[in-house]
Here is the input.
Amino acid sequence: MLREWQQGFAHCLRQPTGMPDVSPAHRIRFSIYRDNVIGSLVTALADAFPVTRLLVGNRYFDVVAADFARQAPPVAPRLSAYGEAFPAYLRTLPTLAELSYVSDVARLEWARIEAYFAGAAETVVTSETMLQQSPDALAFLRFQPAPGLRLLHAPTAIWSIWSAHQEPMQELSDIDAWRPQAVRLLCDLQQVSIWQISTAHHDFLQALAAGKPIIEAAEIAFNVDATFDLQSALADELRIGSFAEVLAPAGST
Here is the structure.
């Protein structure tokens, strides 16, 4: 009986109207509580997706966020973990069908949150680490990615749009929103940094993060762009600390 009442109470929280089985004296209190619950979730989403909110406007964002909150309430007792499904939800909205960059930018903002809470690696692979490896094994080395490493490729200009909104005076007129872009995000001890990278570089790093050896990851990148600079790309990742440790070559004991 109690379980059914609790389920009905939770269901009514997600409805704009509707009332659980409570006394008339508590109905106004419930309405206030419901508004506060949805309002807190909308605020959490606004904090998580500030650029997305700027792109669509505050009023539209708040309405959409409230609808999302009613359909997808939190499953974890931490508001900072709320919003993972929001970018995919935005992509389903007919009103944003011709503005697909909105959900792509939201994906970038969520990746930033994921990287932040994953945290920095306790140790990182450096160029000095690589010098200690056997020259014959270098091409076959694999890496454990840093916990705060995230990669994203989109058919829209996610980096240009996001970075433009980090400036007080936004300059958007020169941005081609439909130009595919890739980004790399990495959490260090101070912040989450975001860089634009080429598609070939993205695919190279994604392959390494998936456990492929350098030689296979490089082949994937060369198939995307024959001018891919393997030495420069690897040096860049070692410089910023994208890898937590070197793993033994596949098949070795």
Residues 51 and 165 are 7 Å apart (CA to CA). The beta strands are 142-145, 149-154, 181-187, 192-197, 243-247. Residues 1-10 have pLDDT under 50 and may be disordered.
